[in-house]
Each structure stands twice: as structure tokens, then as C-alpha cells.
What we know:
Blueprint: H1 2-13, E1 31-42, E2 46-56, E3 68-78, E4 85-89, E5 92-95, E6 97-99, E7 104-110, E8 117-124, E9 127-135, H2 144-154, H3 156-161, E10 163-164, E11 167-168, E12 170-178, E13 182-190, E14 195-201, E15 207-213
Amino acid sequence: MKKFFCLICLFAVFALPSGGCKSKLDYSDYISELRYDVFLYSGDSEEIKVYCSEREAPYAADGIKGEMNGLIEIYAKFEKNYSSVSVDIDGSGGEMSYMTVKDCWYISFSGGFETDSLEATLDTDGKRNEYTLVSVLSEGVMDGKNALECVIEHNGALFESKTENGIFCGEIYIRLLFDERCYYYVGVCGRDKNIQAYLVNGETGRIIAEHSTSA
């Protein structure tokens, strides 16, 4: 229960821009960020996460969808302190940077992975180790576009209010989250940069929480 409460808090803190809609429009055409998979490894002293997304570039919360590109983000956390860490996954990767605020190592690069598991090699101060990361997507978990449909069904009026002359005046951010089970963050951002965000159960489609912010 405590872990679930933390997830709700995290959702509120990171409630960033997004958008969506329904009607004759295909509102999935207005998705400007879609985190479609998360791969995890968790051991006694190491934790590795890989986020796979399609995201607009440049990334801007302005209610306008930009050109989409594949993005891989890797986070690695160790019990031991290292002076350098590098990662290789299927020939992609490189030197990671240490993030003091999150107390972890990080790297991002263009690309995408369509598989159930990843084989990663991490070099920590010259020592190489192999890790197998497994996708959090299991049977029964919907995809991000279906999560968007659940939000549209929940609050279709929001999407209609941002639709003018057959055009959706906003952008949509969808992020797969994992905390013992899968959830989706679905955020709707209008041209006014106001954000209405939802936390969706990845299996049932139930709306667990709502959060709104003003620019």
C-alpha cells in the first residue's frame, strides 16, 4: 500500500504535458511522446532500467506535436561507487554520466528495441559484466494507445474541447510506468500549456488518479 501511494505521488510530481481526443479524429496522431516498453534487471547490488520511447525532437511542452524519433534511455544504479561506467546493448551505448540528484548513471541515444529481453554489457572501472534485462510487458497488459482510448472514454469532453475545425489543438504524452505492475501516464497538453494528466491501470484500463496543472 505504501508503495502504491508512492507511485501516486510520483505521478503527480512528474505530471508533464500531454494530449488526446476522440471523435472522427484519430487522436493517436497527436502523441508526441510514447514510452512503449521498459526493461529491468534487479540484483543484490545493481539495478538497471532501459526505457524505450518515441519522442518529438526538439522536446517542448507547447501543445504542438513535433517530428518523432526513437529514444533509448538507460539508468544504472550500483551499491559500490565507480569512477566510470559504460554500457553496450546490441552494439549501442557508450560512456554513462553520473546523475547526482538521482544517484545513478545515465545515457540516452537514438534507436529502439522490439524484443522480450535485452543482453547488456556494463563496464565498471574496467570490469565487464553481462546482464539480462526483461520487458515488464506481460500478457494482459495493454499498449499505450489503448490506454489513451481509456482516457478518452473517461473524459471525452476534454478532447472535444481542444478540437477545432477537425484539428486537435494539443499534444499527448504517454509513458509506461512500472511498480510491481504496469501503469500508464497519459497527459494532455493544450496550446495554453495547461496539462490534464491521468494514471491508468495497464491491465484493466481503470483511471486511478487525475492531476491538472496550469502554465
